[in-house]
Amino acid sequence: MRARISAGLLMYRFKDGRLEVLLAHPGGPFFVRKDYGHWTIPKGEVEPEEDLLAAALRELNEEICIKIDPSGHFFDLGSIRQKGGKTVRAWGVEQDWDDTQPFQSSTFTLEWPPGSGRIETFAEVDRAKFFPLPEARLRIKEAQLPLLDRLEARLNPQPA
């Protein structure tokens, strides 16, 4: 069994002089009433033999319909390990996007309610929004906080 690896992009922009990051809220019935501590960077599992950055770009497009030129300026934010054991590899990229526009996320199917025999289809991501960094720290999954720290350190290096 190979290790579970996801790849994602931490998109950011500067608006009115402040740093904002794009986070995605997971769709499906388990997250309907969950907010703080449940948002994530757009990411997804890497296919066998797939380039990690290519997977991150694919997932951003599939989950939020954002296409970024693969020749753009990306910088490595390293990896984190989530509670379930999955490793997430991430890159930062400066990119604006109108987070008030509707988007069509990829979907998944699930028996819902459990034991009912009914198969329902749900969006992988039901919301995506830019948040100022302090608010993003409250909304993102705790295991992904180091990605925000690394982005901030990269964009605001402290004098030695």
Notes on the structure:
With 160 residues, the chain is an alpha+beta fold. It has one domain: Nucleoside Triphosphate Pyrophosphohydrolase (Alpha-Beta Complex). 19% of the residues lie in helices and 36% in strands. It has three helices and eight strands, in the order E-E-E-H-E-E-E-E-E-H-H. It has helices at 52-64, 133-139, 145-155; strands spanning 5-15, 18-26, 43-45, 74-81, 87-94, 107-111, 119-123, 125-132. Strands 1, 2, 3, 4, 5 and 8 form a six-stranded mixed sheet that branches. It has a two-stranded antiparallel ribbon with strand order 6-7. It is globular and about 55 Å long. The chain starts with a strand and ends in a 5-residue tail after the last helix. The model has no long low-confidence stretch (mean pLDDT 94).
Radius of gyration: 16 Å
What CATH first level would be assigned?
Alpha Beta
- What best-fitting shape do the alpha-carbon axes yield? globular
In the CATH scheme, what's the topology name?
Nucleoside Triphosphate Pyrophosphohydrolase
The beta-strand count equals 8
Structural class: alpha+beta
Largest sheet: 6 strands, mixed
Q: Helical element count?
A: 3
- The fraction of residues in strands falls at 35-45%
- Low-pLDDT residue intervals, each spanning 5 or more residues: none
Mean pLDDT: 94
What is the CA-CA span between the terminal residues?
A: 44 Å
The named CATH superfamily: Nucleoside Triphosphate Pyrophosphohydrolase
Order of helices and strands: EEEHEEEEEHH
Q: What portion of residues is helical?
A: 10-25%
Named CATH architecture? Alpha-Beta Complex
How many domains?
1
